[in-house]
Batch of 3 targets.
Target 1
Amino acid sequence: MPEDQNDAVTDRSAPIRVVLAKLGLDGHDRGLKVVARMLRDAGMEVIYLGLRQTTDSVIAAVEQEDADVVGLSMHNAGHLALAPRILQALADSDLDVPVVIGGIVPEADVDTLRDMGISAVIHPGASALEVADAVRRSVA
Amino acid sequence: MSAGSETRAAGELLERARSGDRRALGRLLTFVEHRDARAHGLDDLVHPHATGNAAVIGVTGAPGAGKSTLVGHLVKEIADAGQQPAVLAVDPSSPLSGGAILGDRIRMDGVAEGRAFIRSMATRGHAGGLALAVPGALRLFEACGFGPLVVETVGVGQVEVDVTRTADTTVVMVAPGMGDAVQANKSGLLEVADVLVVNKADRPGADDVRRDLEHMLDLGHITGVTEHWRPEIIMTTATTGEGALKVHQAIQAHRAHLAETGGLEDRRRSRIRQEVADRMTRRLEDAVTACLASEPEELAEALQGTRTPASAAAALMERLVR
């Protein structure tokens, strides 16, 4: 019988916890719902915040849920304005958590986003495997 | 890291969490949830600060009944009354992938944002240790000054119901269109209710649900089940928050009743008893897994058919318990 009084065993199979959200006025959440399902089926725990979130609400969720990664869906061409804000907000809260962006992002902006510190950009048409891989790699 | 330095790390996080660092608390909750080696010694550190006095409110009901939405408003009422609520929102894990979509927060954020610490927890299957993670998380919340503590679970599955019924006050939510009086009687959920909520009161059929519940409670009166406490039935519309104040008042009334009758101490004791039982069960399960992994002779005999499974189990148990 185990002697350990605290029942502590290291659980190596702990699922990745990912916060999914859309920031501000951007009402197209069908893609994000599909992504939530893809990540669940890849064995991750998805904290689904959905529409009309703020940087504050995302930060609060990351802190309280001890999330490993943030996934933001963007379909309103706001990515170049919103990405720096969320990265700054995370830095201000001393949170070292990668951010993945999915949605409509012109190819020309991808390098700019990556240079800012966005871990990955996922485009329409990405397979479930590609989506899960991008999230996993950003955490690793 | 050695066990000693892990305890120190957990101790530092606890200090920070107790002085209001939400990220530190978030991290500690992960330790508790994973039965992580980093949580080694955490329970001992938390224990002196967790008095067991914080009110624990269980909220349960069928999926889609409106639990999370109501909890959002309930948490607001609690915060308005000058208290610091925390929420543990439990959602099921996929039995196939082990992943989960934790969608309770989305229902609470609009109202409860900034007013409560909300943590989503996946059930992680039967062996996932939900029964152990919940009491550990509640103690942690209390040690960090939170209370009352709300635990929300879907009212399906024994573990979820057990978790909820160990609360001081159990709120069971139903909504119209989810079955008639026979269903209401069939479900063991209603039996554990201290407060009954009929949500979606603006929908057709809500009054019928209320009537069915009243009848059911009348029968409980005859059989003695509701002798000491007859749950109040409250009509709510969680999307607007209507009725949330009444739910809060009913919870407080039930707690006052428990305090008067000594029921509070009874529930506290049964909660601890349950946790001790759950931890023992977990240890036994671990021991059984380890025993079978060692490919004992009795197992081989059962596999060959020269021994019945029951006889193999009896012989192995004999060894295990000794």
Target 2
Amino acid sequence: MLEIKNLHASVDDKEILKGINLKVNAGEVHAIMGPNGSGKSTLAEVIAGQEEFEVGEGSILLEGEDLEELSPEERAHKGVFLSFQYPVEIPGVSVTNFMKTAINESRKAQGLEDMPANEMLKKIREKSEMLEIDRKFLSRSLNEGFSGGEKKRNEIFQMAMMEPKLAILDETDSGLDIDALRIVANGVNKLRSKDNAIIVITHYQRLLEYIVPDYVHVLHDGKIVKSGTKELALELEEKGYDWLKEEAAV
Amino acid sequence: MDLKEKLVSSFMAFEDGLDLDHPVHEERSNAMKNFETKGFPTKKDEAWKYTSLKGLQKIDFSIFPKHETTLEYKDVKKYFLHEIDTYKIVFVDGVYSSYLSETTHDGVDVCLMSSAFSKPMFKQVIEVYFNKAASKDESLTSLNTAFSKEGAYIYIPKNKMPKKPIQILHLATGNEAALMLQPRNLIVAEDNAEVQIIERHQSLTGNEVFTNSVTEIFAGKDAIVDYYKVQNDAPTASLVDNTYISQKNSSVVRVHTFSLGGKLIRNNLNFYQNGERIDSTLKGVTILGDKQHVDHHTLVHHAQPNCESHQDYKGIFGDSSTGVFNGKIIVDKIAQKTDAFQQNNNILLSDRSTINSKPQLEIFADDVKCSHGCTIGQLDDEALFYLRSRGIPKKEAKALMMYAFANNVLESVRIPELKARINKIIANKLGVRMGFDL
């Protein structure tokens, strides 16, 4: 599904990603953990096509296709989805209208007609129920005045609507209380399939109790310094990141 | 001969054709004197610091069109809000076109200033209202008053409401190489009356047009007036719009100004609150490109207690376009419990576009709520990335953000077909197709 080879990325001449290698197969869930400033969010945004970052060496392949020349929207059309750590408020555009526009633009890019209105409504109803989102919520302006938890839940709702091949969840757990965390994790688990892949970026092991990863990677100073199975997350929770930093320094 | 001299000398010829015993004659003469003394405003005048009329004064405008022109409805249909049934007062090169118009005297008067000036049945209304709200000091208003002869006359008696909205359309055919127009409108909604009006100026060719318009609006007790100004004219058309609104107790007047095209647009929008519990709303959407210029000068004069005013102007400026927002609010000493709100938000799309935004509050009462805010920014890159990451292409994402930005102003438009039309004009301007209407 996704293959990242020796990826380097920098912003304002400061290198943040210093040679990432990562392979994610369809049907897998990978967790990327690591201390603040290790480059987790940068990695997520670079995959999604944030133009603010300068990509130097290396490549990102989605189903064998190099994403380098593709705009963020083209990547979305190919099935890349990023659940933002800090979803942006867009006053004046309702959640529903936003989703309609997003889905129909993606369909247009694939040479399809607009989704029929009743089908769209049905889908919105289905997915919002899955995430226990109140219907009233959907007519509100996108993310405006949403609580941290509502924003994250709304991100996963968008993911459910867009049905991406590759979803990257950037600290989706931050700002969520335990009930909201369960709802969100449940939603994500329902979206898991043998045809898609999910990368979960998180600080804490907590989310991984609900979204159980197949692999865990530790990012430190722009590099993956350790990879393992879900037990690695537990180990990190227990020991913190310092031992890895020391190990990396050796 | 410069434009001022030409206007001054034309005035004599203009007067020759009019009834000199008419009470309005004296108003015209006084107004001409004022214009002659003051002339066109210059950049030295504080109120005209950012808007220059110099270029326009160099053009050899015809003051009176030489020949009448008839237009086929099908050729100008698109400038009408034709999706709904309306009364229409249509002028072609400043001359009333009965063929394109639909007026009425059925319970309400929707007709012409020229009739109102000449027919005895309107004499009293003219005496009570004409030139009573308009400034006698401002030189361009005086210039219009001096030449006041034609325009829309709308009189809604007590407790009445016209069966349908009213459109005022000024068309310029381009038969003159350069044409100056000075329409004069009088709108009176007596106590508890209600009316909806859409005004539009449209030049049909690339010839220069300079319109100096004055509109007086009187709202009686509990009256409701909705006035929509659609300013989406050709790149060679300039407009100075002077609108004066006088409101009585508990009346509601809402003016929406959509400045979407034209060479130079100056809106002088003045509200005078002469009663209590009055509601005044001033909203505007400006979207410009090229070298277009828009200047919104608003005034809300709170002269009595317990009144409200709401101002919300949004501007989007691309290319080398320039904008001005000057919002003046005066709260008299006796106007306690005034609630005055003013907001002006702007987005600059290019390094060459500029906006000058200035709130001007003169508050003499001590128990009031006045808030104002002004922002100037660019489209937020992060928001843009967010939308694009959901598959919305850059151009559409930008348009969506601009739509959203203008949405507040559009949502209070009470004629859905007009709202749809404005949406369409905006979408065309932004070069996108929108999957939904705001």
Target 3
Amino acid sequence: MERRNGVRIDIGDLTHRYTAKTPLTFEKVNIKAEPGEALVIIGRSGCGKSTLLHILAGLLEKTSGIVQLDGKDVTEPSSHWIMMFQAPHLFPWMTVEQNVGTGLRFARWPEEKMKKRVAEVINLVHLDEFAQNNTQDLSGGQQQRVALARSLVMEPDLLLLDEPFSALDAFTRATLQKDVRAISKQLGFNLVMVTHDIDEAVIMADRALVMAGSPGEIVHDFKVDLEDPRERQDPEVQAMRANLMEIFHQAAGVPVDSSDEEGDDTSQPDVELVGN
Amino acid sequence: MSNGKVDVVGVDADSSAAALKAAQNRKKAKSMGKSLFNWAAGLAILFALWWLGGYLIYLNPDTTNFSDFGPIPTFKAFPELFAIGKIQAAVFTSGYRLGAGLLIAIVVGIPIGILLGRSVVFRELSNSPFQLIRMISPLSWEPIAVIVFATWNGAIVFLIAVAAVWPVVFATAAGLAKVDPAWFKVARNLGAKPWHMVTEIILPAIMFDILTGVRLALGVGWIVLVPAEFLGVTSGLGYSIADARETLSYDHLTAMVLTIGIMGYILDSSCAMMIKKYSWHH
């Protein structure tokens, strides 16, 4: 696959509320990112980080503010910015290959060109031997890899990740975190990821943005200046994790306690979609 | 040395996998054999009861004139009916009417079902009218259909379509209600246009439900077809039964009734096979 250039992300004074009667989800959020940068937004459940990601994907309408990619307003979904969700949501009537090629079929790619691209991406996520399998026969980690391939096949400039590894076992999660970051750096696209896992933020981010409060706001912008590949047991990674943990807990207004690193509530607010 | 050991282990693993597969195949073959036996035994019991009934009719002097309803005269009538082309013509004509009625039911029913499943307003608006119309016996439309349509053929096709449309509509809507909303979100995210939503997401996702509805519709249509052909027309399976009754050809009558059963069974089995083929549920 060709190397992409990524996009310049510009979010200015972004405000959102679901309806006129509901409180603000977040208010005057400002985020800027350079092409190819990996941002991880961390925060407790309900602070609006998932909503922010949906707006950035064009799947949800903003209330006010600016959301621009390379200077162009984001108003609807596009093959240039693709989102991966918490669950893989694969189409169970399709094989792995057909699932991966879904976006290309929508874009009416010629059959031969599409087959070639799909095979490349399946190879990239190490699923070659499963290409003809039905997705229901795959493990959770393999299914999430298919979802990743389905996103990467569109050659996005920006990959948005809404806690895509949270339902996986620790080993698979760690492998996928490293793989996704490596692929993003290899292909040069931007990553914006939402999580409440501090470890995940340190492993995957160039910058970690801490979101807190109600309505939510970005309270800290933390540079994760580490060499790749990043290993959890590396002392530098451990030190970075400790720093981020402290900032995260200060933002949340709770005493620092290393055992409470992933937040206490895994539930997410439902996201209402535009025109769906 | 270690290589030798690995080989031995590999051979053992291969042979035990082959043995396991052979055992699974034997079990599968045994299960299929048992199913086939039960299928044949069920049919044999039905025919035995039929033969017994025919024999009892034959033994009773009051009913002996009706003994042609029994299996032996019926099976003797088949070659005769085939030779004069009566069965072929009746099956073709009725098949055409059923096919046309069913096709209309599918073409009309699937979009309405999708609309019911996707639009709350349409669902609320159509609920009362649909339930009201659905409860009207399809055959009670016959006098109106005869007035409205220029030919009896058209009227019969209409009656079948009216009867068959509801299972398709409600099965489609019920299927859509079970579709994971996230699939739409993912599809939009990947650039799906509205027609992609229908052709690439909705229809494959609910194909199992649609075909189940078509299977039910086929049953209903087949049931409506025969009484609808009792009146007015001079062709088809229903007409052939009425005609045989008029001419007191009870062996022909039973042969036509049996033909209806066999045709219905074949059509229903074909639907069941299609459902199995297009179902993605594991």
